[in-house]
Amino acid sequence: MTYQLKAIGKVKNDENSTFIQLEPEYIPGLQALEGFSHINVLWWFSDCDNDADRNELQTEQPYKGAPEVMGVFATRSPARPNPIALTASEIINIDFTNGMIRVTFIDANDNTPVLDIKPYTPSFDKVETPGVPAWCSEWPKSTEASGYFDWGQVFKF
């Protein structure tokens, strides 16, 4: 089966900020987004969209203390069958006229295609007591704490 996706915008990173710039035809989709503090952004790992990365199903220990071999579905690796990524981002402000959502952070490169945006709602997106394997149990418990965490002590690249 073949599926067709169309980017609704792009991630833009400059020296001052990070924002999502929507294509003009999608700007009406921002209506009533004000009041939400966070959004879930679905984006395309465009820098890893190649045959080699799409065929990688296992990887050697990407995190210190993790199993020696991990399936890509147990990682957040960009190398995967469909290079789709998800980031929960805090909204700083929304420019409804120009279709720009300024966010505090998104782990995507400049000009990365954005596939969809959904409001973060605790009733659907928050898990009160998530379980994780022992090897990553000391990782931060929130996106806010992740910003202050030394990820260099975790990643092996």
Describe the fold and architecture.
The chain is mainly beta. The chain has one domain: YaeB-like (Elongation Factor Tu (Ef-tu), domain 3), CATH 2.40.30.70. It is 8% helix and 29% strand. The protein contains three helices and eight strands; from the N terminus they run βββαβββββαα. The strands form two sheets. Strands 1-2-7-6-3-8 form a six-stranded antiparallel beta barrel. A two-stranded antiparallel ribbon has the order 4-5. A hairpin with an 8-residue loop joins β4 (58-60) and β5. The longest helix has 4 residues, at 51-54. It is globular, with a radius of gyration of 17 Å.
Task: Give a concise summary.
It comes from Sporofaciens musculi. This protein has 157 residues and is mainly β. The protein has helices at 51-54, 122-125, 143-146, and strands at 9-13, 18-22, 38-44, 58-60, 69-71, 84-95, 100-103, 113-119.
Strand order of the largest sheet: 1-2-7-6-3-8
Shape: globular
How many helices in DSSP terms?
3
Give the N-terminus to C-terminus distance in angstroms.
35 Å
Low-confidence stretches: none
What is the helix content?
under 10%
Strand content: 25-35%
Q: Briefly, what CATH class?
A: Mainly Beta
CATH topology type:
Elongation Factor Tu (Ef-tu), domain 3
Number of strands: 8
CA radius of gyration is: 17 Å
Q: Give the CATH superfamily.
A: YaeB-like
What is the overall pLDDT average?
Answer: 94
Order of helices and strands: EEEHEEEEEHH
Keywords: Methyltransferase, S-adenosyl-L-methionine, Transferase
Family: Belongs to the tRNA methyltransferase O family.
Pfam families: TrmO_N (PF01980)
Protein name: tRNA (N6-threonylcarbamoyladenosine(37)-N6)-methyltransferase TrmO
